[in-house]
Specification:
By secondary structure, the protein is mainly alpha-helical. It has 5 helices and no strands.
């Protein structure tokens, strides 16, 4: 029994190794894209982009973007709206007449 497991695991390992090698060889046969002619003459004639100082960009990124008082009000309003929606969804979906028909039909 132990020999059968060893044989099976050895065979599976060899099959996986062969499949991996075949996959790599097949991937190596793919043609490379032609990258030499990807830049158009208009792109070559275009000026270099302007370099900007990094300090103002970092200052803007680190500045607080949301006023905490305004943010809390927006969040509180959203929480209240979601709670109201949840309360409406907790009710019965069926009317009294429909629930009676369903209960009668299941008996």
């Amino acid at each position: 029994m132990a020999r059968a497991r060893w044989c099976t695991s050895t065979i599976m390992t060899r099959v996986l190794l062969i499949l991996s090698v075949l996959t790599l060889l097949t991937a190596g046969c793919a043609p490379l894209p032609d990258l030499d002619r990807t830049i158009t003459p208009a792109m070559e004639a275009a000026p270099y982009p302007a370099l900007v100082p990094l300090a103002p960009v970092l200052a803007r990124a680190n500045a607080p973007g949301v006023d905490p008082e305004r943010g809390n009000g927006v969040i509180d309003a959203r929480v209240a709206a979601l709670k109201a929606r949840a309360a409406r969804l907790r009710g019965s979906v069926l009317t009294g007449n429909e629930s009676q028909r369903l209960a009668h039909g299941l008996q």
